[in-house]
Amino acid sequence: MMLTCPLCASIDTGHFHRDGRRDYHRCRHCALVFVPPEQRLGPEEERAVYDQHENSPHDLGYRRFLSRLFAPLHERLPPGARGLDFGSGPGPTLSVMFEEAGHPMAIYDPVYAPDRSVLAGTYDFITASEVVEHLFEPGRELARLVALLPPGGWLGLMTKRVTDHDAFTRWHYILDPTHVAFFSEATFMWLASHLDMHVEFPAPDVALLQKP
């Protein structure tokens, strides 16, 4: 069965994998792997999963994890660059790390920090750590974020990447029922081309996209 890709809107998609709970389809145009809409969780079910997260800026292990995105992005930013942490979660931490480094930050999360007024601002950089895999409409959401960046602005994304079919079938990442969109390096390269941006992969699971 062909489904419309939630990233590029192509209908050139095909079945990729099925496990005991869900089906996974792959787009032949942008290489996104995605869960069909009818197999996604509802809002209350999603919130119940997110409420189990115990992330905190006081957790040094969590800071080390986030440093894979923080470090390469920070070294590319001018002093005082202003940022937005999109999908900050129940315990905003990446925003704290950038603020400690001298970067004013805004946060947005549809569940825990739902002030949409921050999405009307302009930012020198935007981060989304462990976010894109949760998006039902990643194409629309990412285009909206890029529109908030000036020329030279950065979009920093962290998510685990699809490698091949065999690895996907054994991948722990698909066991989280809130993960519905799975990117590969090829997907990010398509995204960069589509948005007229340059993409780098400076660290495991990290993609940095810059507006020209």
Automatic annotation (TrEMBL):
Keywords: Methyltransferase, Transferase
MF terms (GO), sorted A to Z: methyltransferase activity
One Pfam entry name: Methyltransf_23
One GO term (biological process): methylation
InterPro entries per UniProt: SAM-dependent_MTases_sf
Protein name as annotated: Class I SAM-dependent methyltransferase
Species for this entry: Halomonas gemina
